[in-house]
Amino acid sequence: MDLHDFPVDVQICPINIHAWIYPNSSLHVKWLDAPTNDRGSGSAALNPRQKMLEYEVSLEAYQQGESYVTEDEKRIMDGVKVLVRFRRLLTYQLIKCFLPSFFLVLVGFASMWISLDASNERLALSTTVLLALYTQLGAIRSAIPSVSYMTFCDIYVVACMGFVVLSICESVVMERLHASTETISTANDEVRHRDE
Fold this sequence. Notes:
By secondary structure, the chain is of the alpha+beta class. It has 3 helices and 5 strands.
């Protein structure tokens, strides 16, 4: 499985049917009827009333006259192949991954509208959002097979984390600027009082 594009990935699974005992010279395997559409017909078909919740399933390609070499490489066997295509439906992943992350980032940016005097609350809100995104990333990763690379969904959630970290940095910069302007205005007030 290649999950680089998860959750908008397409997986193609080959099903090989071949003779195991009889060699190519004794037995020829072929499809009885040629398929007419992506749901199949004749020799290989998908049940039109059966649907999968996470995938759209279709029969991708049929091949006749495939030859297979046995493991001991002593015999060549005749066979046929069908490719089953699984296209992941985006609705489930949209509800599970993309929308919650989007709303969490909005909540993270909402900390910018909290008063500058409430810096602890701003930091607590942003940190909570960051932890929620990290927990969501773990839940998404546990729902798919373990892979050593980042999927598209991982990149999206990490980018959302980056936006929340940027909002935390913005809060810190604004707090420092606010503190320095207060210090300058206090110093100016002291100078004015001395002059009077």
